[in-house]
Amino acid sequence: MNIELIEKKLQEIYADLEQEVMKVLMDESFDRKQTNLRMQPLKSTKKILENALDSIKMVDKLAKEDLLK
């Protein structure tokens, strides 16, 4: 498994998410509640991706350990 490629692609997704966050934060037409409601899915998406990467790394590590046995 090419972990580096996966990390690179996730970094691209993180950059897109950050752009979305900046758009939400800069939109002055939203009040505080609307801003928070729009930010929650973006934060959740990033957390899900981070957890997925951690899981992928763990699976890769375990697979490599099994090959060495």
- Give the strand tally: 0
Shape: elongated
* Count of separate DSSP helical elements: 2
Largest sheet descriptor = none
Distance between the termini: 19 Å
Strand content bin: under 5%
Order of helices and strands: HH
**Rg calc:** 17 Å
Give the mean pLDDT. Answer: 94
Ranges with pLDDT <50 over ≥5 residues? none
> What is the helix content?
over 70%
Helix/strand class: mainly alpha
Topology, pairings included?
Layout: H1 3-26, H2 32-68
Helix pairs in contact: 1-2
Précis, in short:
By secondary structure, the chain is an all-alpha fold. It is built from 2 helices and no strands.
Report what the structure shows.
It is a single chain. The chain is mostly helical and 69 residues long. The protein is 88% helix and 0% strand. The protein is built from 2 helices and no strands. Helix 1 runs antiparallel to helix 2. The longest helix has 37 residues, at 32-68. The two termini are 19 Å apart. The mean pLDDT is 94.
